Amino acid sequence: MAKRRKLGNPLALTVMVLLAERSMHPYEIAQTLRRRGKEHSVKINFGSLYTVVQNLEKHGYVEVAGVQRQGNRPERTLYGITEAGRAEMLDWLSDLLAVPAAEYPVFETALSLLPVLPPQDVAELMETRGAALAIQAAALRGVLGQLGEKLPRVFVVETEYQLHMIDAQLEWINSFRTELTEETISGIEEWKSFHETGEVPQDWQDLDEQEIVPAPERKA
């Protein structure tokens, strides 16, 4: 089970990882994230970076490492990671990689409620979603191609993963839409009857009266 941490913002972890490489000021952190294309995998609010750094300093994870002056520009405070910050960074990142998080994607929520819509409507909505995902996949392939020319693969594996997940979702959506249009999915007769008559099918009512079997809990 993942630990409850003093800071939970993934941007804080991202900042610590960069500062583990070398001391930087917040503006340099933002520039480095842009150059590495991390806005595609981390929700980055560049305006909040200073607040994130301040919170990290407050908890003893980063500290002032010096001051940088370039020409007539204002001085910029450089921050470096502390030993406590390095330990937190390694533990936090290890947890994220090894322990599945309790996530509740809104698409899964929508799928769990879809019988309230007619099957044909759902099939059309799946087609619309599939078209949007295909555009996203094409855009990501372009981004991956550009980043791959500039960065080692180790820096773009998260983008590879995003693309793989989109491709997998597209494959499932196309298969599911085929079942809907060909009316081969189990339960479709009751589903259609519900929308034709406005009455809840007896089979559905019987399901509601069955003993509940607890589903596996999502681990936090």
Distance linking N and C termini: 6 Å
pLDDT averaged over residues:
90
Number of helices: 9
Uncertain segments are none
Report strand %.
5-15%
The sequence of SSEs as H and E is HHHEEHHHHHH
Major sheet details: 2 strands, antiparallel
How do the strands of the widest beta sheet line up side by side?
A: 1-2
Per DSSP E runs of 2 or more residues, the count of β-strands stands at 2
Query: What Rg do the Cα atoms give?
Result: 24 Å
Instruction: Briefly note the structural class of the backbone.
Output: mainly alpha
Shape: elongated
Percent helix, as a range, is 55-70%
How would you describe this protein?
This protein is mainly α. It is 59% helix and 6% strand. It has 9 helices and 2 strands. It has helices spanning 10-21, 26-35, 49-58, 83-98, 106-112, 119-150, 157-181, 188-197, 202-209; strands spanning 62-68, 76-81. It has a two-stranded antiparallel ribbon with strand order 1-2. Helix 1 packs across helix 3 (49-58), helix 1 crosses helix 4 and helix 6 (119-150) packs antiparallel against helix 7 (157-181). It starts with 9 loop residues before the first helix and ends in an 11-residue tail after the last helix. It comes from Streptomyces gelaticus. Pfam families: PadR (PF03551). This is PadR family transcriptional regulator. InterPro entries: Metal_resp_DNA-bind_regulator (IPR052509), Tscrpt_reg_PadR_N (IPR005149), WH-like_DNA-bd_sf (IPR036388), WH_DNA-bd_sf (IPR036390). Residues 15-89 form the Transcription regulator PadR N-terminal domain.
